[in-house]
Amino acid sequence: MIGQLHQISKKHYKTEFVKKSIVVLIANDNSKRLDWPLALVQDLSPGKNGEVRLVRLKTAGGTVLRPIQRLCLIETTPWEARIFLK
Description:
The protein is an alpha+beta fold. It has helices at 10-16, 78-84, and strands spanning 23-26, 38-46, 52-59, 62-67, 71-73.
């Protein structure tokens, strides 16, 4: 089982997994992971080289822009995403 695990490179993470309408956690070095806010990805902003750099996120408190490096993916369905962000 451990032999089947592999690391995902940053480039693969950016292009493959971050898409519109997924739920993520916004990482914050100054708080515990339990306190990180949930957000829904609304828009992707590519850089000059075409790689996604920034994302527009909808949180319970409004809309924010965050760099892609500050996001943690969580597994949800679109139906669950609507419930989280009501």
